[in-house]
Amino acid sequence: MDEGKVIYFDNNATTMVAPEVFEAMKPFLTNLYGNPSSIHRFGGQVAAHVEAARESLASLLGAAPTELIFTSCGTESDSAAIFSALLNCPKRNKVVTTKVEHPAVLSLGKELERRGYRVSLIPVDGKGRLDMERASEMIDDETAIVSVMWANNETGNLYPVSELAELAHRNGALFHTDAVQAVGKIPMKLSEMNIDFLSLSGHKLHAPKGVGALYVKRGVRFRPFIVGGHQESGRRAGTENVASIVGLGKAAELARLHIGDEQTRVRAMRDKLEQTVLATIPSVRVNGDPANRLPNTSNISFEYIEGESILMLLDMFQICASSGSACTTGSLEPSHVLRAMGTPYTAAHGAIRFSLSRYNTMEEVDFVLEKLPPVIARLREISPYWK
Ligand code: PLP
User: Fold this and answer.
1) Residue 97 Cβ < 6 Å to ligand 1
2) Among 14, 75, 225, which residue has the most ligand 1 atoms within 8 Å of its CB, making it the best to mutate?
3) 327 is annotated as an active-site residue
4) How close is the Cα of 155 to the center of ligand 1, in Å?
5) How do residues 1-57 score in pLDDT, each as one tens digit?
6) Pairing of β 297-302 and β 351-355
7) Are strands 297-302 and 284-287 parallel, antiparallel or unpaired?
8) What is the dihedral of CA 373, 375, 377, 382, to 10 degrees?
9) 71 C-alpha to ligand 1 centroid (Å)
10) Phi, psi of 67 (to 5 degrees)
11) Which of 147, 149, 186, 204 to probe ligand 1 with, by most ligand atoms within 8 A of CB?
12) pTM for this one?
């Protein structure tokens, strides 16, 4: 392994900008700086690239370009979808979501409660699978929108979005999915699905930070979240982040080319990492549902030690992983996802999320497998809970 090389197994937190993406963006940060809304040809040329990016993203999602609105991030897309539904259905004041959502949705739920809305959270079982019986009890004729993530950022668990959309529609509610972790990792064809809104974020699929998109199914009424100019057909005001939008378009094109890789090579690396850890290190457990997960994510609890200490020692070998989601790092509270799953205290504290990408190699997996067991053994030696 090259000295100084970072082994980046934290791709659910953010991803490397693909070199092709960076190249595609460069002209829009230098000579092609026109405003896509300008009448002159210089602006029009830039607008054409924004539209090409929209087409590229649409073909990754199996959607129509007109169904996509560029935003600043996944969080904005989530808020835009949920507020739109609430504004369009003033007679319904309930939002149904889950206990394992990202804070982009959960914190919004808390804010909505402060504003007088009712928010119901669907519970999960020990593997993080949704309680569908509770879901069908919670979704009723007072529900304006059901928002359930497609893939969980901490465990990688996949959720039955079509079934949930069906439940929502049967009760006259709209359905939104936060697909920030799913887009580019699993194939999707939205034209054949019943999802009304879908959020995605550029920086999780090798585009830069600060760009995202919201899919709004044709025919679904949309009320803009950011109001001002006429950009994005009046659906999201503000001069477009052109370079990043072009980058997202390129990243979508690459994701389309490599989606098979996620299912084969990335999955094989993840499986080797996980299976070897399970076979060689005592008192470990996989968090989540191994039968129904993203191919790149493995969340493993090393019982009786602290995840933060493991991360610090791995960091000495330039190995990057995460304990819980990046947004909860820094707090010693076990992650809300693992708590919702009822993960025992001794296991929740020692949970590490490894999340791979197509830029990782088997050599890196082997390097982690060489360094990890002595790190765990060393921490257990000094742990008061390990005997
Ligand atoms: N939703 C999920 C599932 C995520 O994992 C993240 C980021 O970690 C977000 C939303 C927020 O996305 P962004 O950072 O683009 O706002």
Assistant:
1) no
2) 75
3) yes
4) 14
5) 666 789 999 999 999 999 999 999 999 999 999 999 999 999 999 999 999 999 999
6) antiparallel
7) antiparallel
8) -170
9) 13
10) -90, 0
11) 204
12) 0.97
